[in-house]
Design brief:
2 domains, Multidrug-efflux Transporter Regulator, Chain: A, Domain 2, 72% helix, elongated, mainly alpha, 14 helices, three-stranded antiparallel beta sheet, 263 residues, 3 strands
């Protein structure tokens, strides 16, 4: 520790002072392996080399390394860090804001994951036999939530604000996703029934109600919702796989609802 402090003071006093990689690693409190890795990735090259081929670092390198460590702590990727330290014109505030939003999304995801674990735990405790299908449905809900960022691109800011004002929270979206999972499962086991039967008509009512709860009867939001499903080919794998797996259910319900409109 004393060596580190003394050498750092010396480097600050003489900014041109050069240290070999081992000495510099001690001062910077990083491993030699890390410095070699940053050199290999062109993130931080040494200021020079000794006659014996040793990497040499000066005070400017120490300041640069401190920047890298700080940005890495904030969760930025090495590629993002390289771009920031190489271009003074890059807006660091904007980069940190984007990172903060990404962290907020991760926090929200882990909250949902914890909630899913609690539900799975409760499901196991309330039954003598583990209902794996129910647990799989819970997992599907959490996985589907990861697609929310992709989905949002199909809605205007005005539409998203209206949905938000309607108190359609992330938690509500998760609950609705679970309702959709359950409804799809119920439709699947009743697809062989007469479309005019009471049970199928009740399923159609539930389907329509869930759509209306989200769109609030707004035709523009409904149009954006349809646009989401029209572009499912470019969706994240979780969303795409879910839709492909349930394509037969969607087809069944679409035909049924079209017949209802025609009446």
């Amino acid at each position: 520790m004393e060596f580190k402090k003394a050498e750092e003071r010396n480097m600050r006093a003489d900014t041109n002072k050069l240290l070999k990689i081992g000495e510099f690693a001690k001062v910077a409190n990083v491993s030699i392996r890390t410095l070699r890795f940053y050199d290999k990735k062109n993130l931080m090259k040494p200021s020079g080399y000794s006659s014996s081929g040793y990497r040499l670092y000066n005070f400017e390198d120490l300041l640069k390394l401190e920047q890298i460590i700080a940005l890495k702590f904030f969760g930025l990727s090495l590629a993002e860090i390289k771009e920031i330290i190489e271009d003074d014109k890059i807006d660091l505030t904007k980069a940190l804001k984007i990172q903060k939003e990404a962290i907020d999304q991760k926090i929200e995801y882990y909250k949902l994951l914890k909630k899913a674990i609690n539900k799975a735990e409760k499901s196991i405790q309330n039954s003598d036999k583990i209902d794996w299908q129910k647990i799989i449905n819970i997992i599907e809900v959490v996985k589907m939530d990861k697609t929310s960022k992709w989905v949002k691109q199909f809605y205007t800011s005005e539409q998203l604000n209206k949905i938000k004002r309607h108190e359609y929270t992330q938690e509500q979206a998760t609950e609705d996703a679970e309702k959709w999972n359950n409804l799809i499962a119920d439709v699947r086991v009743n697809m062989d029934k007469d479309p005019s039967s009471q049970i199928v008509q009740e399923l159609a009512d539930r389907w329509t109600d869930l759509i209306n709860q989200f769109t609030m009867g707004d035709e523009s939001i409904m149009g954006s919702l349809k646009n989401v499903y029209a572009n499912v080919g470019s969706a994240p794998s979780e969303f795409k796989d879910f839709n492909q797996k349930n394509a037969d259910v969607y087809k069944f319900m679409n035909i049924l609802l079209e017949k209802r409109k025609g009446k």
